[in-house]
Specification:
Distance between the termini: 45 Å
Oligomer: single chain
Structural class: mainly alpha
Length: 349
């Protein structure tokens, strides 16, 4: 077992970050969409399959989530409230999407993949990785399989979504990114506000027990700063790229310590449920683009269950309807976590 480096990160995670950064650099050089996240995710996923000594670091995600929350909050302002009143049809449609896709994925995993009832049910839920693992294990499911199925869902959705967006709209997602912002664009006082939003938001999020406290807390504080006009800080692009590398690395490392054959088996099984999830999302996205003032790319990002942090960062990196995507994914997680346990208890009676 690898011991933590003295006063620093584990060597296994340091190696994973180095591999992830190299993967991101290769993807960026070749002009791939979302290069730093997809490159890091793909490189560390392959490293896990090849059984290289890489491992995720649980302590890396909270601070990175806080940084991401402060970045996302900078996208909110008075215009968000004006737009939000038009989003209610999408949020109602989101509830129906979650119900339909969960039922179809459950049938697929039970009837075709022959998973047991609890494992199939909690693996089929389109969101809430940690919550679904806990709920599933309490009800007799295989928690390792549930965890791997959800990790595979996030991996495959993030990997496939840019290509799907390009296929549907003909838009080059590699060229959708926001304008490059150097560190010089961030004044010293804005650095203080940015760091203050991270620290204050994380503390507030924990104190009032927000869901995803390290992300939502800083996002709310950052939103308040921008909404009130106290600060208009814009996060440099290099920080967004670094966040992509860390999150991509943590997703890829979720397969570490698992037999390669098992990883490939889970990926193949999850590919079917991912196809169902994205297919149903597309069915909802096509008519919704004519009902609400959001392009189909934004609706797909909002509905695709690729993880709250991951999909929010994709929206931020591609500069696609960030506030709508964030609100939709927070709603998705809430609906899944609240509904999954209640519906399963009902099914057992």
């Amino acid at each position: 077992m690898t011991a933590p480096a003295a006063g620093g990160m584990r060597p296994t995670f340091a190696l994973a970050l180095a591999i992830g950064a190299c993967g991101g650099a290769v993807f960026a050089y070749t002009g791939m969409p979302l290069p730093w996240m997809l490159g890091a995710m793909t490189a560390t996923g392959l490293a896990s399959i090849l059984r290289l000594p890489v491992k995720g670091e649980p302590l890396a995600r909270p601070p990175m989530s806080a940084v991401l929350g402060a970045m996302l909050g900078s996208q909110f302002g008075p215009h968000t409230l004006e737009s939000a009143v038009q989003w209610w049809p999408a949020l109602i449609a989101l509830a129906f999407y979650l119900l339909i896709s969960a039922v179809l994925c459950n049938l697929y995993l039970r009837r075709l993949m022959h998973l047991d009832r609890a494992t199939a049910y909690f693996s089929a839920m389109p969101g809430g990785l940690v919550d679904m693992v806990l709920l599933g294990s309490e009800r007799g499911g295989d928690e390792r399989t549930i965890a791997l199925m959800h990790a595979s869902r996030i991996f495959l959705v993030v990997l496939c979504l840019p290509a799907l967006m390009t296929l549907l709209t003909g838009t080059d997602t590699g060229g959708l990114g926001a304008k490059w912002r150097p560190f010089a664009d961030m004044a010293l006082i804005d650095v203080g506000y940015f760091l203050g939003a991270i620290v204050a938001g994380a503390v507030i999020g924990r104190l009032i027990r927000l869901p995803a406290p390290y992300l939502i807390g800083p996002m709310l504080v950052s939103s308040a700063l921008h909404w009130s006009g106290t600060s208009g800080f814009v996060v440099p692009s290099a920080i967004i790229a670094a966040a992509q590398v860390v999150l991509g690395t943590t997703v890829g490392c979720r397969f570490a310590g698992t037999q390669p054959r098992r990883i490939l088996q889970i990926l193949m099984t999850s590919a079917g449920s991912t196809l169902i999830l994205l297919g149903v999302a597309l069915v909802f996205a096509v008519p919704l683009q004519f009902i609400i003032d959001v392009p189909i790319e934004g609706i797909l990002l909002a509905f695709a269950p690729g993880g709250l942090a991951e999909m929010s960062l994709v929206a931020l990196a591609l500069n696609v309807e960030v506030s709508f995507v964030v609100v939709s994914h927070i709603s998705r997680i809430g609906m899944v976590v609240l509904g999954a346990g209640l519906m399963y208890r009902g099914g057992r009676q």
